[in-house]
Amino acid sequence: MKLIRFGNPGSERPGLIDTDGAIRDVSSLVADYGPETLSPDLKNTLQAADLSALPKAPGDARIGPVVARVGHFIAIGLNYADHAAETGAAIPEEPIVFSKAPSSLCGPDDDVLLPKGSQKLDWEVELAAVIGKRCDYVEEKDALDHVFGYALCNDVSEREYQAERGGQWIKGKSAPTFGPLGPWLVTPDEIGDVQNLAMFLDVNGERMQTGNTSTMIFSVAAIISYLSRFMVLEPGDVITTGTPPGVGLGMKPPRFLKAGETMHLGIEGLGEQRQTVVAR
Ligand code: ZN
């Protein structure tokens, strides 16, 4: 199943993609997709629904982030060996964990807002997992059973704020619109092997990132198990799992985004995003 949220920011409605690719409004079945509702029961409810009897969303509806009221938005740094190399960092021995503010989440095609005075805005195509069952000391072999679904994420980053202003990466990862998430929340049964998905990102139509989740250093299952030893993960929490090579920081010389530039990114089975950078 492909879950989607549509409507204006803050008043999105839950939807499901039908067999013709149209969005069906499922708000008569579930209030929204969030910590209170993401569960195995919700999957059963949606699977049993007669979508042909439900209203279609307007054809021009904005798409929102795939989940609302996110508690934790966790990210993994340098999780692709070739990306670690391009940034000059050593291969991590344990996952590098940082937070993004949940308020950075936005729709997949929303404008990305350039922070005031920002000179080092960068892109990162990533696979995100959305938790569907509480994780507290989950073993790696059981970890993927705790995933509700997967979504495409752009881990938008401001490299000066991240690395040159002291303290933790969260400062460079958290501005509004630094977390486009969607268009769909895809249930694992539709994905097959989550560790073999092709991914790409273009800037102004030029290919910058090409990768595959097969080259992750720590698998999605390993990451969830690892995190669950340090914190409890709850339904609706989002974990974005790192980016392949080709970010602006890794170029010689580094190349950063300016107002008016566009990003286009995608992961096999998870859809595509398109954003334009807009100055605040
Ligand atoms: Zn990232």
Could you explain how this protein is built, in words?
By secondary structure, the protein is mainly β. It has a single domain, classed as Fumarylacetoacetase-like, C-terminal domain (Fumarylacetoacetate hydrolase, domain 2), CATH 3.90.850. Helices cover 11% and strands 29% of the residues. It contains 5 helices and 18 strands. The strands form 5 sheets. It has a 5-stranded mixed sheet, with helices on one face. A hairpin with a 3-residue loop joins strand 17 and strand 18. The radius of gyration is 18 Å and the shape is globular. It starts with a strand and ends with a strand. Bound molecules: zinc ion.
Summarize the structure.
The protein is mainly β and 280 residues long. Helices cover 11% and strands 29% of the residues. The strands form 5 sheets. A 5-stranded mixed β-sheet has the order 5-4-16-9-10, with helices on one face. The protein has a 5-stranded mixed β-sheet with strand order 7-18-17-14-15, with no helix packed on it.
- Report the total helices: 5
For the largest beta-sheet, the strand count, sense and barrel status come to: 5 strands, mixed
Sheet with the most strands: spatial strand order: 5-4-16-9-10
Structural class: mainly beta
Rounded to the nearest angstrom, the radius of gyration is: 18 Å
Helix content: 10-25%
The beta-strand count equals: 18
Order of helices and strands: EEEHEHEEEEEHEEHEEEEHEEE
Strand content: 25-35%
Classify the fold: give the CATH topology.
Fumarylacetoacetate hydrolase, domain 2
Mean pLDDT, nearest integer? Answer: 97
The domain tally reads 1
Q: Which hetero compounds are present in the coordinates?
A: zinc ion
Alpha-carbon distance between the termini?
36 Å
CATH class label: Alpha Beta
